[in-house]
Amino acid sequence: MKNWIVLVVNLFSLAAVADLGGTWAGTINWSFQGTSTPCSAKIIFTETPKTLHRVSSHLDCQYVTMDGEAKTWNLQSGQIWDGIQVVGTAASGVYRWSEVYSSDVTIQNQIQVTAGHADYHERWIQNKDQTEIYLLTGRVYPQ
Q1: Model's pTM, two decimal places?
Q2: pLDDT tens digits, 126-136
Q3: 115/2 Cα distance (integer angstroms)
Q4: For 2-142, CATH number?
Q5: How far apart are CA 50 and CA 107, in angstroms?
Q6: How buried is residue 136: exposed, middle or buried, by Cβ count under 10 Å (0-12/13-18/19+)?
Q7: Beta strands, E only, the chain
Q8: DSSP state at residue 127
């Protein structure tokens, strides 16, 4: 009986790890041309079996701040859709997707959710030559 209880608890833990929904806070380093600045971060997502919604995101780097807009994607068979096309994947707690910032810039995102935290990786890329403009990396924790 004890083995079954442990198994059930582990299965619930794995299910919780795979979900990006909730409020996340921590430190994200914002790098530009080799210089990195630590920023306090707060990101809020909701997730259902069919949608992933970024409610808000805020980075405070003392001298500069950045707020991410609210956005909703559709989830279907491990793929992330922007309503028109597949823009990424979501599987086993790893979310990867691209967003169009402008006709010149694409944002590549990856968030890996594990027990007790999520590793955050965001690259801003110049489309014409694939040059990295910004790199944001860090770790956030559920609040």
Answers
A1: 0.85
A2: 999 999 999 99
A3: 22
A4: 2.40.128.20
A5: 23
A6: buried
A7: 22-32, 35-47, 51-60, 65-68, 71-76, 79-81, 86-91, 94-100, 105-114, 117-126, 131-142
A8: T
